[in-house]
Amino acid sequence: MTEAQTKTEITFEDFKAEVLNDYRIARVSRECSLLGRKEVLTGKAKFGIFGDGKEVPQLAMAKAFQNGDFRSGYYRDQTFMMAIGQLNIQQFFAGLYGHTDLGHDPMSAGRQMGGHFATHSLDENGNWNNLTQQKNSSADISPTAGQMPRLLGLAQASKIYRNVRGLEDFTKFSNQGNEVAWGTIGNASTSEGLFFETINAAGVLQVPMVMSVWDDEYGISVHARYQTTKENISEILKGFQRDADNNGYEIMTVKGWDYPALVETYQKASAIAREEHVPVLIHVKELTQPQGHSTSGSHERYKNADRLAWEAEFDCLAQMRNWLLDNNLATTEELEAIDNEAKKEVLEGKKAAWTAFVSPIKAEQNELVALLNAIAETSANKVFIEKYAADLAAIKEPIRKDILTTARKVLRMIVKESGQSQLATWITNYTHKIQPKFSSHLFSQSDKTVLGATAVAPTYDEAAEEVDARLVLRDNFDAIFNKYPESLIFGEDSGNIGDVNQGLEGMQEKYGELRVADAGIREATILGQGIGMAMRGLRPIAEIQYLDYLLYAIQIMSDDLATLQYRTHGRQKAPLIIRTRGHRLEGVWHSGSPMGMIINAIRGIHVLVPRNMTKAAGFYNTLLETDEPALVVECLNGYRLKEKMPTNLGEFKTPIGVVETIKEGNDITIVSYGSTLRIVEQASKELLEIGIDVEIIDAQSLLPFDVNHDCVKSIAKTNRLLVVDEDVPGGASAYLLQQIIDEQNGYRYLDSQPQTLASKAHRPAYGTDGDYFSKPSAEDIFEKVYAIMNEAKPEQYPSLY
Question: Which member of 590, 606, 709, 762 is catalytic?
Answer without folding.
Answer: 590
